[in-house]
Specification:
2 copies of one chain form a homodimer.
Chain A lengths: L26 E4 L8 H11 L3 E5 H7 L1 H11 L2 E9 L8 H18 L3 E5 L10 H22 L2 E4 L16 H8 L7 E6 H4 L5 H8 L3 E6 L1 E2 L11 E2 L8 H10 L6 E3 L4 H5 L2 H15 L6
Parallel strand pairs in A: 1-2, 1-10, 2-3, 3-4, 4-5, 5-6, 6-7, 7-10
Antiparallel strand pairs in A: 8-9
Keywords (chains A, B): Isomerase
Protein name (chains A, B): Sugar phosphate isomerase/epimerase
GO molecular function (chains A, B): isomerase activity
């Protein structure tokens, strides 16, 4: 099924919501969803589609420079829902200082952009290292070291548990339960968690873990799990509604915690990247208003 | 790294163990590791390599017929360590009876082959169904319905938790903890669990879950998690030692439960399937004696 078709189980295609539609009030475009767009293009695309918020990545911000990036989003009247990404602090102990310093720069950028949260992707196993528990321990220590720095900047750290498909090479924190075990050692206003449907939909008891997360939910992100899984594991996320995720129950559980922040659509998918950005944004806005927004109330 | 190279962190290549080597006493070749071989060829390959046990699949058994399959393995003096596979009982309720009956046939075959365990692969979500909790519930009910049938045949059911990469389309039971939650409703001699390193290596607290499993471990199976993940998710398992799994600690935890059964190498991998079967068996025997067998004591 292509991203512009209707997902199974949906009624006949509904109209694309237009700019100003109140149902779009909390929608955010994570800019990796339209990876071919520069930051300026993504900002313009959000404005054209009436998407009021954007999740930015550090690399495209660096391309234009932080000051200009801040102006771009401010002049467009957009919110920045999150900055991706800090983390990657599970390397050998000799790399811990450099990783910490890189995360300080990421925190500075997050503060400058006025984003509420820096998304932390923990990182994977060092080359040749098979000590997963050790890497998980280093992730927890690195978060702890960033707590005073984040508080000083008024930025929240968002630990992102990642699907176990990425445990070896990208994110050693594999469940929401595990992310909360780490986060709960710290104040909730400084250390939260990122709840991403793609990463977490399979977790046994995940809705109970969402309830446990409560006010720690720092970001709610959407992508679907599609089968057959695309050949590149990194680009295996599907458009909301194309796959197996039950967005209704997941979203209702997030809403029940009182989460009032933006809802980011973050999809890494080669087919979407090859499609015109405006079409992708129109599709995700439609899917969001059909499948997600009604359950946020 | 190819399957015939040394994995990182190993000493210089050690000799391939020869038939009669006591270190091979518990090694089993799951015949999907050498998928190009017929059952007769796999039996011959085990004998040539001195592998005393084989894990069989129902399809290649059916190709020669059950009676002949029983004679093939008996005449060769091999044990059958497991039969793959029963399960696939998460379809819509209307399919439950047919799935149950198919599992009865699988139990009959397992008994005839003298294998201690029928491996249960639970199955995925029905087409268009997004109720993962519901599918998990049906899996638990289907196991319960098989308990008297398994007991009557002297066969153990082995619930196989599968990596979350397969939660949508193959196995809705995603963690050892979850498999044990289902199994513990039944006597341990009738309902056990299959502990497969590929599926479980990432699970937070997995070694504690292995200890919890105790006498419920019905089969211990080996494959590695390799990166980058091969493009076909179903064929993404790696040769023991080629990837990120810590076989030493995993195996020691299994051994600490008192598990005394065979240790099956089950690897679905297109590169291995394209290699000569005897080479694959020689490599896995060497890797097993280097990385696994020393930790079984």
């Amino acid at each position: 099924m292509s991203a512009v078709d209707q997902p199974s189980g949906l009624p006949a295609r509904t109209p694309t919501p237009q700019p100003g539609d109140p149902r779009l009030a909390r929608l955010s475009l994570n800019q990796r969803t339209t990876a071919e767009w520069s930051l300026a293009e993504a900002v313009d695309g959000c404005v054209r589609a009436g998407v009021p918020s954007i999740g930015v990545w550090r690399e495209p911000v660096a391309e234009v420079g932080l000051d200009k990036a801040v102006r771009l989003v401010a002049d467009a009247g957009l919110r920045v829902s999150s900055v991706c990404r800090g983390g990657f602090f599970t390397g050998p102990p000799s790399t811990a200082r450099a990783a910490h310093d890189e995360n300080l720069r990421a925190l500075d950028e997050t503060a400058a952009l006025g984003a509420p949260v820096l998304v932390l992707v923990p990182g994977g196993l060092p080359e040749g290292d098979r000590d997963l528990a050790g890497a998980r321990g280093r992730a927890a220590e690195a978060v702890a070291a960033l707590v005073p720095e984040a508080r000083a900047r008024g930025v929240r750290l968002g630990i992102e548990p990642m699907h176990p498909i990425y445990a070896a090479d990208r994110g050693v924190v594999s469940t929401l339960a595990q992310a909360l075990d780490i986060a709960e050692d710290h104040p909730a206003d400084v250390v939260g968690v990122v709840v991403d449907t793609f990463h977490l939909w399979w977790e046994p008891g995940v809705l109970e873990q969402v309830a446990r997360a409560g006010e720690r939910i720092a970001s709610y992100q959407l992508a679907d799990w599609i089968t057959p899984l695309p050949p590149d594991a990194l680009l295996s996320r599907g458009m909301v509604g194309d796959g197996h995720v039950d967005f209704a129950s997941f979203t209702a559980a997030v809403a029940a915690t009182g989460y009032a922040g933006d809802v980011e659509v973050e999809i890494f998918n080669a087919d979407l990247w090859a499609a015109p950005g405006d079409e992708v944004v129109a599709t995700l806005a439609r899917r969001y208003t059909e499948l997600v927004e009604p359950h946020l109330a």
